[in-house]
Design brief:
It catalyses: tRNA(Gln) + L-glutamine + ATP = L-glutaminyl-tRNA(Gln) + AMP + diphosphate. By secondary structure, the chain is of the alpha/beta class. The chain is built from 14 helices and 31 strands. Strand 3, helix 3 and strand 4 form a beta-alpha-beta unit. Helix 12 packs across helix 13. Bound molecules: adenosine-5'-triphosphate and magnesium ion (2 copies).
């Protein structure tokens, strides 16, 4: 299927046509310049990268970025690098690194190509970054500034006025080099000095007013230990990481648009100095994903977890990739979603129903069908013993999938006692209600037609049993079964062979479309009814359901056997624990 074009595809197609990057060499080892020079032509036509900071679990916004970067590489004969952006000397948590790798793999992508595993850590390039900084000093393009942070802020100016040169801006190259080395050697305290690029203090783009490129931070780094007490700023590190990895198209979110001139300035300088090979990578920006009824900020997601508003990063209500997975989203549905929302250069909010629509479209042709009764009440067939014999169970069957007969049939038993949905009985019946009420006939799907005779209620007036009589010769699939016409068709599960299960009905996590956008804190906008747990009955084929398997429960929507808590024991004695999460209903209900 031809994918719809977008501005990024156009850029890439033009670069491929013009051979912009066709002369590049690939040494197989990013950052190793000697190796690089001896390398052969790059086997990858384009290189993109996905550069997460390993400080939390990825969310649906990251999924968009993953699908975009890995998807473009795949479509154009390229490679996408996975790069852990760990230039901040913070403790890297292996848990996050592992979860990020898992998420990318689960989404169906690979960072292995042409025999190379493209899994990198930005901190591996610290030596090169340091050399690049010294080069800028030597070229008269950087200086050590010792103004206080406050002076620096004031002297940077703002949109209404140009900045003011720092008194340290005119230092000699020798002095700068010596001072920078003192910074490196730990002679200065945190915050005592920074290295700044020397560009233009009057630039209308504030980011070009001599941005800071190195700062002092006496902190241990998980990868480089205590080797460094100065660390590169993100805006300096990122273009270098891209260049060393031979990235061609560096795709980021819109908030980095104002950084693009510095990205180019820096790589142009390093190219002049022969530190990197031309042509250097280019940065392109697209609009980040904002999805209604959820939050997509690692900080806020962490707060939900830390304060116990959800059960963890993988709570099925979380928009994290682990949460969506546990909720029942499939990799295919997330890729379809990413494709449908496309990429644009304008920020917007995507309706949550778009995500659910992609899931339904993915699962409808795939998911096995099953009957489940979520809010059960007993239906007793009062003439069963007389017609069929006491204790008789009548085998019934239904296709695993209505459009795929080759997938076979599910089997279950019809008997004297059945579970039906509580609201399938109404007395008196509201207008247009064709299900159970005294005197009405309905078909129990894949079973028989029954005629309702009445119901029993407990002392509080709560319905506890519905009674009906079987209409003989109406078994589905037998000759003449359709002779008795009915308007209602309901689902059921046999009391004899039904499996007790816990069903978790999830609703939107927040009760407003843009949590935290107004006056209130986002936490005050949590939906208190985002989880409803029911004790349900499911048909016996569900004994074999394994964690992570998706189903369509007829009339109810799409469900998944919970990856973590569902435990099926079809072959063994003893009961398993059956837990199903509702992913989404059968129809869009967000407009309610
Ligand atoms: P957050 O703001 O949630 O902490 P981040 O941008 O700081 O996210 P990173 O780990 O730095 O998280 O992100 C890795 C990549 O994912 C970046 O290239 C970033 O552009 C992209 N990304 C992050 N959030 C979104 C989003 N909502 N939509 C699209 N891409 C995103
Ligand atoms: Mg970030
Ligand atoms: Mg961020």
């Amino acid at each position: 299927m031809e994918k719809p074009s977008n501005f990024l595809r156009q850029v890439i197609e033009k670069d491929l046509e013009q051979g912009t990057y066709s002369e590049r060499k690939w040494g197989g080892s990013p950052g190793d310049r000697q190796h690089h020079d001896q390398g052969g032509p790059d086997p990858a036509k384009i290189r993109t990268r996905f550069p997460p900071e390993p400080n939390g679990y990825l969310h649906v916004g990251h999924a968009k970025s993953i699908c975009l970067n890995f998807g473009l590489a795949q479509d154009y004969g390229g490679v996408c690098h996975l790069r852990f952006d760990d230039t901040n000397p913070e403790k890297e948590e292996q848990e996050y690194v592992d979860a990020i790798r898992d998420a990318v793999k689960w989404l169906g992508y690979s960072w292995e190509a042409n025999g190379t595993v493209h899994d990198y850590h930005a901190s591996d390039y610290f030596d090169f970054m340091y050399r690049a900084a010294e080069y800028l000093i030597e070229a008269g393009c950087a200086y050590v500034d010792e103004q206080t942070p406050e002076q620096m802020r004031v002297n940077r100016g703002d949109f209404s006025r140009p900045g003011v040169d720092s008194p340290y801006r005119s230092r000699s190259i020798e002095e700068n080099l010596a001072r920078f080395r003192e910074m490196r050697d730990g002679k200065l305290e945190d915050g005592a000095a920074v290295l700044r690029a020397k560009i233009d203090m009057a630039s209308p783009n504030i980011n070009m007013r001599d941005p800071t490129i190195y700062r002092i931070k006496h902190a241990e780094h998980h990868n480089t230990g205590n080797k460094w007490c100065i660390y590169p700023m993100y805006t300096f590190a990122h273009p270098i990481e891209d260049a060393l990895e031979n990235i061609t198209h560096s795709i980021c979110t819109l908030e980095f648009e104002d950084q693009r001139p510095f990205y180019d300035w820096l790589l142009d300088r390093l190219q002049e100095g022969g530190l990197i090979e031309p042509p250097h990578p280019r940065q392109y920006e697209f609009a980040r994903l904002n999805l209604t009824y959820v939050v997509t900020s690692k900080r806020k997601l962490r707060q939900l977890v830390d304060e116990g508003h959800v059960s963890g990063w993988d709570d099925p209500r979380m928009p994290t990739i682990v949460g969506l997975r546990r909720r029942g989203y499939t990799p295919e549905s997330l890729r379809l979603f990413a494709e449908r929302i496309g990429v644009s250069k304008a920020d917007s909010w995507i309706d949550y129903s778009t995500l659910e629509g992609a899931l339904r479209d993915d699962l409808d042709p795939k998911a096995a069908r099953a009957m489940a009764v979520l809010d059960p009440v007993k239906l007793v067939i009062t003439n069963w013993d007389e017609l069929m014999g006491a204790g008789h169970l009548e085998p019934c069957s239904a296709p695993v999938h209505p459009h795929a007969p080759e997938r076979g049939k599910r089997e279950f038993m019809f008997g004297k006692e059945l579970w039906i949905e509580r609201d399938d009985f109404q007395d008196p019946p509201p207008k247009g209600f064709f299900r159970l009420f005294p005197g009405n006939k309905v078909r129990l799907k894949y079973g028989y037609v029954v005629e309702c005779r009445g119901a029993l209620f407990d002392a509080t007036g709560k319905l506890y049993e519905v009674q009906a009589e079987l209409v003989p010769d109406t078994k589905s699939g037998t000759p003449g079964a359709d002779a008795v016409k009915v308007k209602g068709n309901i689902t059921w599960v046999g009391v004899a062979d039904g499996v007790k299960a816990e069903v978790r009905l999830y609703d939107r996590l927040f009760s407003v479309p843009q949590p935290g956008a107004g006056e209130k804190d986002f936490l005050e906008e949590l939906n208190p009814e985002s989880l409803k747990t029911m004790t349900a009955y499911v048909e016996p084929s569900m004994r074999a359901a394994h964690g992570g398997e998706n189903f369509q429960f007829e009339r109810h929507g799409y469900f998944v056997a919970d990856r973590k808590e569902h435990l099926s024991l079809p072959q063994q004695s003893g009961e398993g624990k059956y837990v199903f999460n509702r992913v989404t209903g059968l129809k869009d209900s967000w407009g309610r």
